[in-house]
From TrEMBL:
The lineage of its organism: Bacteria, Bacillati, Actinomycetota, Actinomycetes, Pseudonocardiales. It comes from the Bacteria. It holds the Pfam family NAD_binding_9. This is FAD-NAD(P)-binding. Residues 5-179 form the FAD-dependent urate hydroxylase HpyO/Asp monooxygenase CreE-like FAD/NAD(P)-binding domain. InterPro entries: FAD/NAD-bd_sf, HpyO/CreE_NAD-binding, L-asp_N-monooxygenase_NS-form. Coiled coil: none annotated. Transmembrane segments: none annotated.
Length: 627
């Protein structure tokens, strides 16, 4: 019987299963076995498993999460709508089936709530159960709560070796394991060895919820490098997780300590946390997207076949598209704050080059208040130009910037931020086609792709407002201090010393503990996943290494090479394996999260569909060969 192995049964694996089931009747039909392999709970997987701190929350609102395709998704396969998280919470979830804490959360949830990860776990489990209840005739799903540790060709068959249980013989394999752990880099190994020799504490990059934070001693200073979502999780676990609490005070919060807290000094390249999530709806309706970076513009780049510089050639269109989303919402949702009708502004905006004198003059005339004008440079580098004499002087500056950012992301007077966010989702999908085309110059691929991903994450992947209020309260109480942008670490026998570009003349901050508050960079060669490591050793999986025209290595991405169109795995010789596929952050195909905001033509769903259809065509060939 034709069979597929999907290694990874979290949201990515579930999404691929959904697309396999949706496309199966068209592409062959008949009997099919699908094996889902994962040591973590199916549906939720590792990141969203129920067995984690109840304090950890999503950074998406309940209404902004779905696992189902909708009419906005442009793909070859059939659309199979289903409930978003918010729909599920209102119409399908039964509080009586949950433990008291989750039942209480479910009863109080609203469309704009940021659910706990444990409640998201229940949604993901329900989605998987819903898929299983509606499988096409002949499709059977088998679960293996273990790890896949090896993969080999045996003629046309793929043999998957399991840590526990007999090997599986299948016709195709999909690697969908999500974020993978990796052994430390050389620099991280040096810091680990330094900590070992001098009795210090160093926590290398990993999932914060899996870290042993007990080594961080109450009352001691801890240096933290990284201020993204892992940083927010770290604060939750070290403060409220150790018995502290937040109480209302004026318009904000006051932190009441438990006595078990360390003191954190945090920095990063940007020196600021990610921008807060928006807490409002669009007033002017969805912006018409794509407008300046659509199929025609992307097609022109691809059809020309010439080398592409992302920052020089594509970014002006990307930036103009993001600004289009911002100004559409400003003019349509807040017409009292502009000097021109939308139609007149839109025509002039479309005719002007981005960041040219005509565009600047148009915006200055039409948008009188500078706070209503989008500033992409400030969004990316909010501390650019900020210099402080010492750490104490910097704190109120950074707090004021964080507080203003929060205000604009929760006050409905500033919904243009949401218009820009929606446009960024469109830009992400269109730019991914160019980045996956193989036409970027080596320098652009080595530098600009990571720059864009960092920009996108900083603007679009931030924490909910209540987490930002907690961060401000911790800062006001003196438990969290900000080091600024351009953080640098030096190892000395007494500990670790931290400096930053924002504090060029200040003395270094020294501590006995250093935490890397981020996930490991993708690295197939350093992966702790036994299956992936074995494929790398055999040359059957290869990392994408960016080489300049003179053979200079510019960057090793650490990501495994896959065919952009369908995720088929490319080996060290450049051969595309006809029966092996991969999707997720460990591959060269740039995708956002495994679940998405409804109505946004999700790139992840589109790629899942293309991958599933390619796999099912392998199945059709296997069936014909068997006959």
């Amino acid at each position: 019987m034709p069979a597929i192995a999907v290694i990874g049964a979290g949201p990515r694996g579930t999404g691929i299963l959904e697309r396999l089931a949706a496309n199966h009747p068209e592409l062959g039909g008949g009997p099919l076995d699908v094996h889902l392999i994962d040591p973590y709970p199916p549906g939720a997987g590792r990141i969203w498993r129920h067995a984690q701190s109840p304090l950890l929350a999503m950074n998406s609102m309940a209404a902004d999460v779905t696992m189902y395709t909708d009419e906005s998704v442009v793909c070859e396969g059939p659309i199979r709508p289903g409930p978003s998280f918010w729909d599920w919470a209102r119409e399908h979830a039964d509080p009586a089936a949950f433990e008291p804490e989750l039942a209480a959360e479910l009863r109080s949830i609203t469309a704009s709530s940021f659910p706990s990860r444990r409640l998201q776990s229940r949604y993901l489990e329900w989605v998987l159960a819903d898929l299983l209840a509606h499988l096409p005739d002949g499709v059977r799903v088998h679960f293996h709560r273990t790890r896949a540790i090896g993969l080999a060709d045996d003629g046309a068959a793929q043999v998957v070796e399991l840590e526990e249980g007999a090997p599986l013989r299948v016709d195709a394999v999909v690697l969908a394991s999500g974020h993978l752990d990796a052994t430390p880099t050389d620099d991280e190994l040096a810091l680990l060895e330094h900590a070992r020799q001098h009795g210090l504490v160093y926590l290398p990059p990993e999932q914060t919820s899996d870290s042993d934070l007990s080594v961080l001693v109450p009352g001691e200073t801890v240096l933290v490098r990284g201020m993204g979502l892992a940083f927010i999780d770290l604060l939750v676990l070290l403060y409220e997780g150790r018995g502290g609490r937040f109480e209302p005070e004026g318009d904000g919060l006051r932190y009441v300590p438990s006595g078990q807290e360390p003191y954190i000094v945090a920095g990063s390249p940007r020196g600021m946390p990610y921008h807060a999530k928006t807490h409002y709806d669009l007033r002017g309706g969805p912006p018409p997207l794509p407008r300046f970076l659509g199929d025609a513009q992307v097609g022109a780049f691809l059809d020309a076949g010439e080398p592409i510089d992302l920052r020089r050639q594509v970014w002006p269109l990307m930036a103009k598209e993001i600004a289009w989303g911002w100004y559409h919402e400003l003019f349509q949702g807040h017409p009292d704050r502009v000097r021109l009708p939308w139609a007149e502004f839109a025509e002039a905006f479309a005719a002007a080059d981005w960041d040219g004198p005509e565009m600047r003059a148009l915006i200055e005339h039409a948008v009188p208040d500078p706070v209503d004008r989008i500033d992409l440079a400030a969004l990316h580098s909010p501390l650019a130009g900020v210099i402080a004499p010492d750490l104490d002087a910097l704190q109120p500056i950074v707090r004021a910037k964080i507080a203003e950012d929060l205000r604009q992301h929760v006050d409905p007077a500033h919904t243009p931020h949401l218009g820009a966010f929606v446009a960024m989702l469109s830009v992400y999908a269109q730019a991914a086609r160019i980045m996956g085309s193989g036409l970027l110059t080596p320098r652009s691929e080595a530098e600009d792709v990571s720059w864009w991903q960092g920009f996108f994450n900083g603007v679009a992947s931030g924490p909910p407002g209540f987490r930002v209020r907690e961060l401000l309260a911790l800062s006001e109480a003196g438990f969290v201090r900000f080091l600024g942008a351009g953080m640098a670490i030096e190892a000395v026998p007494e500990g670790f010393r931290a400096t930053s570009a924002t504090l060029p003349t200040a003395p270094p901050v020294q501590a006995r503990a250093l935490v890397e508050a981020r996930l490991p960079d993708p690295s197939a060669s350093r992966s702790t996943d036994a299956l992936l490591a074995s494929l790398v050793r055999a040359g059957e999986v290869v990392e994408a290494v960016i080489v300049d025209h003179d053979d200079t290595v510019l960057r090793n991405t650490g990501q495994i090479r896959t065919r952009p169109s369908d995720g088929a795995i490319v080996d060290a010789t450049g051969r595309v394996h006809p029966r092996r596929f991969a999707a997720g952050p460990h591959t060269t195909v740039k995708l956002p999260g495994a679940f998405t905001r409804p109505g946004t033509n999700s790139l992840s769903f589109r790629h899942n569909d293309a991958l599933a259809r390619a796999v099912l065509k392998v199945m059709t060939g296997a069936s014909q060969a068997a006959a």
